[in-house]
Amino acid sequence: MKAALGPPLVTLDDVDVRLWGRSLLRGISFTLREGESWALFGGNGAGKSTLLRLLRGEAWPHPASRGRRTFHLDGPATASPIGARERIALVSAESQDLYPRRDLAVTVEDAVRSGFTDSIWPGGPLPAEEERRVDAALGAMALGPLRRRSLLEVSTGEARRTLLARALAPGPRALLLDEFVNGLDAASRALVLEAVSALARSGTPTVLATHRPDEVIPEARHAAILEGGRIVRIGPREEVEGAWRAASVAGALPPLPEGKAVARPDPLFEIRGDVLVDGRLVLRGLDWRMGRGENWVVRGPNGAGKSTFLRLLLGEEHLAPGGRITRLDLGPAADVRDVRARVGLVAPDLQARHRGDATGLEVVLSGFDGSIGIAGSPAPGQVEAAGAWLDAVGGAHLAGRSIQAISYGEMRRLLLARALVTDPDVLLLDEPFSGLEPRSRAGTMDLVDRLCRAGRSVVLVTHHDDEVFPSIGFEMWLRDGRVERTGALPGR
Q1: Which residues are CB-neighbours of 455 under 8 A, at least 6 positions away?
Q2: Domains of the chain
Q3: Host H or E run for residue 247
Q4: Which distant-in-sequence residues (6+ apart) come within 8 Å of 466 by Cβ?
Q5: Residues 6+ away with beta carbon under 8 Å from 258
Q6: Shortest CA distance to 417 belongs to which of 445, 434, 396, 435?
Q7: Between 316 and which of 2, 138, 277, 311 could a Cys-Cys bridge form, CB atoms 3.0 to 4.6 Å apart?
């Protein structure tokens, strides 16, 4: 006997969404019901994030759309989203980026408190019962020791757990999750997935947009695939997920642009000492050397110091007095601008700092100066070089597009092209494949592997074993700011 359908919370009937001069969703019909949880699959730029924002009331149907969005949260059905945002929670990389983009030094506990008012800054003390729910959410996400730390100081994964606690504390009527486990270590992934599963088992509908089917909670028994802003398949999750997996096969990649014929220095980096950040000891007892032709993966739990280590290599962090570091052949007192000219970076905080009015081409061109944005006209040959690398990463179609109108994964491609335009000696890659759908992820990993085989070196930070590509031969494990172990990867 077929189970009875729960009452609807949000219905979309033939809805179009058009923003920044582009059609992002077309002819969308979808119903989010009480007690039903969903998985959304689709490539980068397919419209998954926009669909979640439409369900929450952040994105509006286009005025010329024939369709209608209706909210059924309480009382009479209405087309108005007023009140919906406070009842429907959304966790996404874009919402996390708001804090570094606006330089908001909100504490972890205040970020969780702000979930009750759907603001990014808390509005003042909460009633006692709501404060108890803040404490419970912090405890459930293992954030108690971090509650008074600034959200700008914690790791990417710790910030993501904070945003989930922020969503859970008020007790949402529905939970929308957009690649919400990106940046989490294995233990944190298990923690948050179980918390979301428990919420779904209690009857709260949950919609997860993801590129990794293994991150879908068991309670999500329904699924849809989006392509080009349309829902192209919908039904039981097992069937839809099978179709998605079958279609996620990497295609051929274009040839690499020719690099400079130069001899890379040896060693590339040599470090001995501790790292202080704002007077706090973050890394201690470093004793590490990276030789020419070596490629490393840096691993460890959230908050271990991995991103700080990459910033140290780039010259954005410094050793405590008594320490010594050499970067390339630039000497121990190298200027950060000289380092940036020869080291390419892809990192989540770098993605957050780019302005929404920049085009894809401008993001890539900013790599020549290691800046955010460009000043003046590009030098001769720079536009051609930027275009060549855009094509190499599969992002040629993004050149003239505002970065407001592209997906999180598409922005990752732009940052990789930006890191490569100067033909760097070393690439520092902090979760570079995060947000990429399987086909793009496999293709981008192969591209970076080919770059390594062509003479560049890579330091990669990742939480996923399947992102350690063949050219990686060495690993470093960090835990609590200390090097737990280093050495050659087994079998390589």
Answers
A1: 259, 264, 293
A2: 8-247 (3.40.50.300), 269-488 (3.40.50.300)
A3: helix 237-247
A4: none
A5: none
A6: 396
A7: 311
